[in-house]
Amino acid sequence: MLDFLQYLVLGLLVGGIYALAASGLTLVFGVMRIINIAHGAFLILGAFLAFTVWSKLGIDPMLAIILIAPVSFALGWVIYKVALAPVRTAPMASTVLLTFGLALVLEATMGVIWGNNATSTEPGYGSESLRIGSFYMPKAQVFGGAVAVAVLLLLGVILTRTWLGRAIRAAAANPTGAELVGIKVASVSAVVFGLGVAAACTGGAIVGVLYTFVPGTHYTWIARLLAIVVLGGLGSLNGAIVGAVLFGLAETFTSAYVSSAWATAFPYLIVFAVLLLRPQGLMGARLREDASAL
Amino acid sequence: MSLRAGWRRAGLVAMAGLVIAGSVACGGGDGGDSAAPIKIGASIPLTGQFSQEGKAAKEGYEVWAAMVNEKGGLLGRQVELVIKDDASNQNTVVADYNALISKDKVDLLIGTYSSLLNLPASAVAEKNQMLYIEPAGGAPEIFERGMKYLFFSQQATADKQGEAFAKWISTLPEADRPKTAAYPTIDDPFVTPNVEGIRKVLEGAGIQTVLAETYQSDLNNFDTIVSKVRSANPDLVVHGAFFDDGVGFVRSMLKADFKPRWLYQTTAPSLGDEYAKAIGPENTEGIIFAISHAPQAQTPGNAEFVKKYGEMFGGLPAEDAADAYGAAQVLQAAVEKVGNIDDQAAMADWLRANTVPTILGDLSWDDAGRPQGEFLTGQWQDGKVEYILPKEFATTDHIVMGWEPGKV
C-alpha cells in the first residue's frame, strides 16, 4: 500500500509538470490551429536559460522563471510576427513544416551556444526529499509541481478573468465572429504564441532541474506533449491538464507494476485506446467540420 | 625543316612531357595523389543521445591526427579527418558512411561511437571492403556476422567487460560480499550483454538476483524505477547505463535516500569530471566501473597522448577520447605495415595475425575481430578515479569497500 501511495505521488508530481509543459501547445492550437512542433525546443531553451541564470547569477531556477517568462514571451511574439504571421491561414501541413524547421534551427542554435554536453541544473535541494518514514517526495518535484500549478492558475485567471482572455477564447471559438466584434485575431494570435512560448520555457526551467538535457532532447518532449494534448483534446487547457496527469500516472504505474521497459511506450497505447473511443480526446469539443468528415 | 619549326616542335614535345609528368605526379589511379593528404572518414554522434561520448571520440581522433601530422604524416602524407555528425541516429550513420565513401571519396574509414551505431555502420564498410576499426562497439552480436574488415579496438567485448569486478566482489569475505543484487539496465546492444555477463558470474557465485529490469533509452524519469529497486533492497546495484541515464539514476537514488552497500555502473562514471559535476563530487565515493584507459597508465605513447590532449583541449582525456585515439593507432599500424592504403584486405589479414601496441595496452584479435584482452576496473576515490583491477595495472592498493555518497 505504501508503495502504491509512493508511486501515486510520484506520478501526480510528474503529471503536474507535464501539464505546464503541454499548456502552451494546446493554447496555441486552440487559437491558431497551429501544431507547434517547436514547442519541445522552446521547453529545452527554457531549461538552458534557467541553467545559465542559475550558474552565472546564482539565482534559483524556480525563481529564474520571473526573468525567463517575459523574455520568452517577447521571443515568441517576435517569432510569430516574423515567421508565423505570414502563414497563419495557410494549410496545417505548411505550419507543421515551418515549426519543425524552427525546432531544428533552435536545436542548432542551442548547440552552438551551450554545446551538446548533457546539462543539468542542480540547486541544493535537487537531490533532497521531504520524508515521512520510508515515504518520500523529492523536493525538486514538489517545488516544480507547485510552480507549475501556480503558473497554470495564473494562465487560467488570464483566460477567464481578463479582457485579453475573453478575446483569446473568442478568437479560439469563432475567429470570424471575433473579428466582427472588433477583436484583432492576428494580434491575439501573436500574444497567444508568446504565452505558449513563455509557458514552454517556464516548464523547461523546471524540467532542467529534474532531468539532464541536451539540445536534441526536444524530440522526446514534443512526442510526449503531443500525445498529452491529443489525449486531453487539442485546444483544451483543462484537457491538457487532465491528459498530463493521466500520462504521468500511466508512466509511473507502468514502470512500477508492468515493466520499466514499457514505461515510455504504454502511455501511448492508452492515448490510442482513448482516441478509438473518443476521437476528439477526453475534453475536446467535436466541431462541425469533424462531423462532416465522418 | 626550318630552325624555327624545329624549336617549335621541340617546345611542343617538352610541353607534352611536362603535362604527362604532371599527370603522373598528380596520380589519377586508385592510390590517389601521393602529395595530397590521406582522407580518413568517420561519422560520430556529436548531437543526440551519445553527444557527450561522441564529442570525446572526435577529440581523440583529432589529437591522433595532429600528432601524426607533426611527425610527418602517414606513409609520408598528411592525414585529413572528414567528420560528420550522425545525431546518434542509426539511419543517419549509414547515410553518412555511404556519403564518406561515394561523395567525399575518403581513403580510409574509422569507426563511430556505440554498438548501436557501429552495428549498421560496419556493414557499410564491409560491403565496400574497407577496413573498419571501431573504438566503441563491444556488443557480442557485432562479431557474429562473419565480417572480415571489422576490428574492435578495446581490450574485450561487452560481455567480458565487468568480469574482473564480478569475480572480485563474489570472492570477498562474508561481511563485505553482497548477498543480493539488482540489475536495472538500459536496452542497448552494448550495455545489456555487459550487465548479463556480470549477472552470470554473480549468480554462479550464489548472489541472489532480486530485480532485473530493462528500460528504453528515451526514459528520463528514474524516480519510479529507483523506488522499485529500493523496495527490493539489494546489497549491490549493477546499473547498465550511458551518461544521461547513469546520472539521472544516481540523482534519483539520492532523492530516495537509497544507498545500497555497493554501486557499479557502466560507462557514466568513466566520463571523469563531467560525471562528478553531474551527480556531485561528494556522491562519487566508492562507485565502481569498467574502463579501458587510464591517463596514468605506462602504455606505449600514453604520456604523449595525455600531454597533447591537455594542450589541445585542456584537462585529462575522457575514456572515449582515449578509445578513439587507440582505434586510430590500430589503423595507423595496419597502414604502415602493409605500406599502402589500397589493399585493405591485406591490412585486415595483418591485424588478425599480429599484436598492436596502443595506449590501451597490447591489442590482438580473433578471426571475427573480437579483442582478446582484459578490461580495467576503476573506482572513484576521494573525488578522482583510481584503477583497482587487475592488480598489475592498479594505481592504488586501497579499495573503498562500498558506495559512500556524501563522504568526500
Q: What fold name goes in the CATH topology slot of chain A?
A: ABC transporter involved in vitamin B12 uptake, BtuC
Q: Any guess at the CATH architecture of chain A?
A: Orthogonal Bundle
User: How many beta-strand elements of chain B?
Assistant: 14
Number of helices of chain B: 12
Beta content of chain A = under 5%
Q: Write down the secondary-structure element order of chain A.
A: HHHHEEHHHHHHHH
Task: Give me the Rg of chain B, rounded.
Answer: 25 Å
Helix content of chain B: 40-55%
Give the overall shape of chain A, derived from the CA principal axes.
globular
Stretches of chain A where pLDDT is under 50 for at least 5 consecutive residues are none
Summing up helix and strand content along with how strands pair, one would put the structural category of chain A as mainly alpha
Alpha-beta content class of chain B: alpha/beta
Helix content of chain A: over 70%
| CATH-defined topology of the largest domain in chain B | Rossmann fold
Overall shape of chain B: it is globular
What do you see in this structure?
The complex is a heterodimer of chains A (294) and B (408). Chain A contains 12 helices and 2 strands. With 294 residues, chain A is mostly helical. Chain A has one domain (2-293): ABC transporter involved in vitamin B12 uptake, BtuC. A two-stranded antiparallel sheet of chain A has the order 1-2. The radius of gyration of chain A is 19 Å and the shape is globular. Chain B is of the alpha/beta class and 408 residues long. Chain B folds into 2 domains: 38-158 and 297-363, Response regulator (Rossmann fold, 3-Layer(aba) Sandwich); 160-295 and 376-393, Rossmann fold. Helix content of chain B is 40%, strand content 16%. Chain B contains 12 helices and 14 strands. In chain B, the strands form 5 sheets. In chain B, strands 7-6-8-9 form a 4-stranded parallel beta sheet, with helices on both faces. In chain B, strands 2-1-3 form a 3-stranded parallel beta sheet, with helices on both faces. A 3-stranded antiparallel beta sheet of chain B has the order 10-13-14, with no helix packed on it. In chain B, helix 5 (163-170) packs parallel to helix 6. Chain B starts with a helix and ends in a 19-residue tail after the last strand. The model of chain B is unreliable at 1-5 and 12-32 (pLDDT under 50). Chain A binds chain B through residues 3, 6-7, 10-11, 14, 107, 111, 115-118, 120, 122, 126-129, 131, 136, 138-141, 210-212, 214-217, 220, 251-252, 255-256, 259-261, 263-265, and chain B through 46-49, 51-52, 54-55, 87-88, 184, 187, 213-216, 218-221, 223-225, 227-228, 231, 243-244, 247-248, 251-252, 254-257, 274, 278, 280, 283.
